[in-house]
Amino acid sequence: MSNTEHSTIYRKDYRVPDFLITDLNLNFILGKKDCVVKAKSVFQRNQEAKSNSNELFLNGENLELLFVAVDGSELPASRYRLEGKGMVLIDMPDSFVLEVSTRIYPDKNTALEGLYRSSGNFCTQCEAEGFRKITYYLDRPDVMARFVTRIEGDIVDCPVLLSNGNLVEEGMLEGGRHFAVWEDPFPKPCYLFALVAGDLIFIQDEFTTCSGRRIDLRIYVEAKNREKCGHAMTSLKKSMAWDEEVFGLEYDLDTYMIVAVDDFNMGAMENKGLNVFNSKYVLASPETATDQDYLGVEGVIAHEYFHNWTGNRVTCRDWFQLSLKEGLTVFRDQEFSSDMNSRPVQRIEDVRVLRSFQFREDSGPMAHSVRPDSYLEINNFYTVTVYNKGAEVIRMMHTLLGAEDFRKGIDLYFKRHDGQAVTCDDFVSAMATASDVDLDQFKLWYSQAGTPELTVTEEWDVEGQRYKVTLSQRCPSTPSQSMEDKKAFHIPISFGLLDSNGNDMELKNALLELKSAEETFTFEGIHEKPVLSLLRGFSAPVKVEPWQSREQLAFLMANDSDPFNRWDASFRLSESVILELTSVLQQNRQAVLDPLFIDAVRRILTDRESDKSLLGMALSLPEENYLAQQMKVIDPDNLHLARRFVRRELANLLQAEFRAVWEGNTNRGEYELTSEAMGRRRLQNVALSYLLAGERPDQSDVDMAMEQYENGNNMTDVIAVLSAMSHCDIPERGELLQNFYEKWKDDVLVMDKWLILQASSSLPSTLASVKDLMHHPAFSISNPNKVRSLIGAFGGNHVAFHNSKGEGYCFLADQIIDLDSRNPQIASRLTTPFSTWKRYDTVRQKLMKAQLQRIAEKEGLSGDVFEMVRRSLDT
């Protein structure tokens, strides 16, 4: 595999730019088949730069250069040269005005970076490096300029013309064309530039800030989606109010706009004042969106709004600092969602993502620190490590400092750095200064990759009424970082001690700070041996080696006062049972379900007092992708059989209890989006999934499910039936899938759910179904949501993808090779299921490696896919 076309970028090589750009005037002339971009930039030599070179390199890709001039005079050919990824200007003065005209072709832009078209509408995506596909520019986040954008377009095709900032002028032109001029008064890097033009309508509202300013709020969508924007607008207003109340941050422009588009590589983008969203995170109605969809809309709307300060007003010096904005903003949106809904439920959901995806990333070839040291393609580092683990790092600081000092740190951060491009170190410095807490050791969370692993040893002195806990930490080796070279992390550990009655013992301090490789913590005056409730609220992103008995886990499930740890005890108990049964099946022994586990599940099913969402979560078994990572050598077949055995046995032994739960939580009343209502639906639908756990469940349970499908007045209850039925080899499965398709075939987002259901099925016929669906009208290889819903979902289907014949591997490799030429970002993300190939048996290893090598041999392989494949093969 050759590396001649792709070079690695290192954080240690960062240098300030030789020139800065203070102002940029853009003029977009939108045509039927192309777009002419005229850019006028004001350059000044950077006084902080050490270089005095009179040459200046500007980034630019896939551009047709029409004109280039400096200070009003067209440059001769001797004053510039075009290179593969940019243009070099020669003999530049210390300050000058550059004019560049380029032609681009949005209709041909299948990579969806820069300016492209979605459903006939023009839109942009410039993070991380898309602006260089619009014009020649210093495309780096530490170059911040004031933008003025003029857009010209056909008034019929593009009645709406939008860009960043405030609208300052608009008018008519000859030939049925019109224009709009937008001015953004706040300097910003070019990755935050946005343009949208097309045939859109908007819903409108307003928000009055704490200082009395009235903000015009608009959500732009296609006309057919007008009635699905209400929840997004409500979420936006809640976000604005919450940010003022919790962080004292007020919105700064006169207008805040959101645009929903169908073709988008990401979830959403925080462009200053003009957020472009994947329509999945804007559109919602009870008939078409599930509870999780509603929560997703609320969370992503909040996330992008919060970026206005944590990302826009203060941005990244370089892309290695990506978690400076993303980790911090994920923490903020998680806190917002916790305040809007259920804090324990939100915390459990966040940790499930972390354990299932980020821990897997930490243990594989793509393991990297929250602040990476190098990258080949920055697109590959929009990862769960940067986002979700980055948020955990912020949360740990919040835990160590306390809410009051954390807020002081945030205030100081903005006071010091408003309008600047800064680093993760700058953020930590503000926190340390404001709180007077030494965070030097804590900063290792930014630089060391991998998930720390804790071991726990307990010692109980009956006579001395003394209880000791010894905690030790280690962090396994990761690419470029050996275990021996890693230093001890500063780990905050929230905990509690329970007596034999399940009550919390009194403690002066419920937070331990582990700073050494091993430390012993002693508790005096403990009258009986306690049960340790460790890592309450999941106070640090670590793994803990199993040390508690199943009896202790069952005790914590029943008694722990910390809701997260009650759920976690059930999770750990389920994990222990399934992995043990996997081993039993590998040895061709008879599988028997532990009676203690059955009793623990029975207690959950008969619990009428606890939060129903938490009960539903406690009943949900760990997913196979997570369980696989806990095995030394992953055995997909026996793991699947073991998990399926547990579900079937529980369904058979506790059928009456599951039916009672289903019947007791069925509600045909009006749809409500409250924590209580969502909890009821969650519990009801988890119970239903158990009753349909077999390939051929009892007909009475099938009839019950059909009744829920036919009478359901919301997508949550309807899709739950299809989800459970998708694993059943019965005639009703096909009937429901066809019925669902006929009803919703004109709604692209609902069709995404339909594709996911079939790609996620555990039936042996799944791969054949997926191949057929590749040619179905509901699928399009050019739409990222469709690709994620069908091909991506199949790659995440552990048992189907890892078929021992390797057919799933060949299929996914085919799609990656095809997509690499169309949309490298999406192709790159599809490689993830291959990344842990060395964890499987030798037969599967050989099959997966062969497909990785086949991908690597593709001529003209993109840097995005090249980096992922190279890391997988080299590690």
- Per the principal axes of the C-alpha atoms, what is the gross shape? globular
Helix segment tally: 27
CATH homology superfamily name of the domain at 314-542: Neutral Protease Domain 2
Instruction: Give the DSSP E fraction (strand runs of 2 or more residues).
Output: 15-25%
The CATH architecture of the domain at 314-542 is Orthogonal Bundle
Secondary structural class: alpha+beta
User: What's the N-to-C terminus distance?
Assistant: 14 Å
Radius of gyration: 28 Å
Low-confidence stretches: none
CATH class of the domain at 314-542: Mainly Alpha
Mean of pLDDT = 97
Write down how many β-strands occur, each being a DSSP E stretch of 2 or more residues.
31
Measured as a percent range, the helix fraction is 25-40%
Q: Which fold name corresponds to the CATH topology of the domain at 314-542?
A: Neutral Protease, domain 2
User: In which order are the strands of the major sheet placed?
Assistant: 6-5-9-3-2-12-15-14
Q: What profile does the largest beta sheet have?
A: 8 strands, mixed
